[in-house]
Write a structure and sequence with these properties.
single chain, 619 residues, alpha/beta, 6-stranded antiparallel beta sheet, 19 helices, 36% helix, binds 2-deoxy-2-amino glucitol-6-phosphate
Length: 619
């Protein structure tokens, strides 16, 4: 996934675009670049590497001046990270610059056709082919004496009609300096409405410092943005639907504030974000939950006889927690699928199967494809999502927003606990439509109401967890073991550690270790064991013994007052007693902190881990 930003107004464009790119850098940070228009010239600075390592020094050395421009921060798809593969890309004439988020699937054939016509390419990217295509169309329209003013939107539209694939683009041209053209299909693009200035960006966080009035463009929209206005047309048959919306958070929500990393800030935000996920959704009178956007009647929900949850990564782990809860509370069979598998697996779904997609960004390509496949088969699809106006949020039949605020750290943290909170509410809601008693419903509500305060208590363990991280930061192999609802927590703890510290970490059902993985254990393989008080406490303690017998050091997450575990584990992190069904909301916090501190101790880039991006909008 990449980030694109455009600005047109009366101020210097480069500093505004650079600031916007910094806020989007979590979307991709292999390279970055900016082009501006000034007195009929198109000036470009673009460098490999993160903004602070490449583009920012280049701009300090040789500033760009001009009141309109476009910028891009890249997560490489076609062509490795390099200066020449960085965006913006120019057309053959050098008059047109393009930044692009997405993948042009037929770029090779288009490139060959252009090369045969004498075009020379400087990069290995698909985006440069699109820039040349737009240049060819612009020249064709001009040579034909096309009277329409301005021509650039029409040249962009004509070029995009030849493109197969996904795009969110911004385009500028020296011949028509008073405008920026944007277009989207499958990648997000948003117009920010200012006073005497306007913005384009892949994500509202790039512009909330300047405006909270935004328009989320739809697929096939082409927008022409000037300093005073914007106009949307649609390449398809639909008339353009323009709806001005208010962003629900300000610029400070996307800033680190007093924290050294976005990830740590987002870990510490969790008491508040769990509260946000609960706000207005607890119905004490009916001992149930309530939602505003499911767009499904009680009768429709009662008729659901199977659910499929499709998601990726952390969201998939949250889905596994949801599976246990929905099956326990509502007795509805649930299948949890990797979205990338579901979309090709052709599963025989019952007629009344409800598909639930879970996604923080609302832009993950595999999850979007799973949604579209399910809808194509006539199934209703609900989305649990954090980004208002995102593609998945808009294409689902209904859904539930997390209201967690922007999650900037590539490693997802607050989104996971918000997703699990919402899934608990959904399981409660569906259970109370079926045979869950009011008494049990109230028990769930009371437990959820305590979670923000309990999350604060878990955060208070940060110092102890940092000490444990220091003890094990030099190890190479970690195992995270849990049973039932804690198995997905073990998977999520392992993912956190591996994706920001680059260490090998695996999550397993604790009882599964003896079926093979136990062979991997020795004194160098710490095992994080989730062993809170509960129905399977004794059995999990037996699993702990199996691990200890292989001399693997055990880091136990246990319930306050449990002295027995302290006899057997090398380290114990005590958490407050909770009902088993909310323990995942609590147990994940020490694992997030453990991963964070190990990564910091190992000198890793916590917010922008190597090879990754915040949302994977390519397959
Ligand atoms: C988790 O820490 C990762 N950043 C990644 O696995 C992420 O959860 C996954 O790509 C899904 O993203 P989404 O929730 O935005 O769809």
């Amino acid at each position: 996934m990449c980030g694109i930003v455009g600005y047109i107004g009366k101020k210097e464009a480069a500093p505004i675009i650079l600031e916007g790119l910094r806020r989007l850098e979590y979307r991709g940070y292999d390279s970055a670049g900016i082009s501006v228009l000034r007195s009929g010239d198109l000036l470009t600075r673009k460098r490999k590497g993160k903004i602070d390592d490449g583009l920012a020094p280049a701009l300090r050395e040789s500033p760009l001046t001009g009141v309109s421009g476009i910028g891009h921060t890249r997560w490489a798809t076609h062509g490795p990270p390099s200066d020449e593969n960085s965006h913006p890309h120019l057309d053959q004439s050098g008059r047109i610059a393009v930044v692009h988020n997405g993948v042009i699937e037929n770029f090779a054939r288009l490139k060959q056709r252009l090369q045969e016509a004498g075009h020379r390419f400087l990069s290995a990217t698909d985006t440069e082919v699109l820039a040349h295509l737009i240049g060819v169309e612009y020249e064709r329209l001009r040579a034909a004496g096309d009277p329409r003013e301005p021509l650039l939107p029409h040249a962009v539209a004509a070029a995009l009609r030849e493109v197969i694939g996904t795009y969110g683009i911004a385009v500028i041209c020296t011949e028509e300096p008073g405008l920026i053209v944007g277009a989207r299909r499958g990648s997000p693009l948003i117009v920010g409405i200012g006073r005497g200035e306007n913005f384009l960006a892949s994500d509202v966080t790039a512009m909330v410092a300047h405006t909270r009035q935004v328009v989320y463009l739809n697929d096939y929209d082409v927008v022409t943005v000037t300093a005073e206005d914007f106009q949307v047309t649609n390449l398809g048959t639909e008339t353009a639907r323009v709806q001005i919306q208010e962003v629900e958070f300000g610029a400070e929500a996307a800033e680190r504030g007093r924290f050294p990393h976005h990830m740590l800030k987002e870990i510490y935000e969790q008491p508040r974000t769990i509260e946000n996920a609960l706000r207005g959704r607890l119905d004490l009178d009916e001992a149930t939950a309530k939602f505003g956007g499911l767009n499904m009647s009680a009768a429709e929900l009662r008729a659901v006889d199977q659910m499929v949850i499709a998601a990726c990564g952390t969201s998939w782990h949250a889905g596994l927690v949801g599976e246990y809860l929905i099956e326990d509370f509502a007795h509805v069979p649930v299948e949890v699928e990797y979205a990338s598998e579901f979309r090709y697996r052709n599963p025989p779904l019952e007629k009344n199967t409800l598909v639930l997609v879970i996604t923080q960004s609302g832009e993950t390509a595999d999850t979007l494809a799973a949604l579209r496949e399910a809808r194509r088969r006539g199934h209703k699809v609900l989305a649990i999502c954090n980004v208002v106006g995102s593609t998945i949020a808009r294409e689902a039949d209904g859904g539930i927003y997390l209201h967690a605020g922007p999650e900037i750290g590539v490693a997802s943290t607050k989104a996971f606990t918000s997703q699990v909170t919402v899934l608990t509410l959904l399981a409660l809601f569906m259970g109370r439509l079926r045979m869950m008693s009011p008494h049990r419903g109230l028990e769930v509500i009371r437990a959820l109401e305590r979670m923000p305060a309990l999350a604060e208590q878990a955060l208070a363990l940060d110092g102890q967890i940092r000490a444990i991280a220091r003890k094990y930061a030099d190890r190479r192999d970690f195992f995270f073991l849990g049973r039932q609802l804690n198995f997905p927590v073990a998977l999520e703890g392992a993912l956190k550690l591996k994706e920001i510290s680059y260490l090998h970490a695996e999550g397993y059902p604790a009882a599964e270790m003896k079926h093979g993985p136990l062979a991997l254990l020795d004194e160098n393989s710490p095992c994080v064991m989730l062993v809170p008080r509960g129905a399977l406490y004794e059995k999990t303690m037996s699993n702990l013994e199996e691990v200890r017998a292989r001399r693997a050091p055990v880091i136990a997450l246990a319930t306050e007052g449990d002295r027995e575990v302290a006899q057997r584990a090398a380290d114990v992190i005590y958490l407050p007693e909770t009902p088993e069904f909310v323990w995942p909301l609590l147990g994940i916090i020490p694992l997030q902190l453990l991963a964070y501190h190990v990564a910091v101790l190992r000198g890793c880039d916590v917010d922008k881990p190597r090879n990754l991006a915040k949302s994977v909008t390519v397959e």
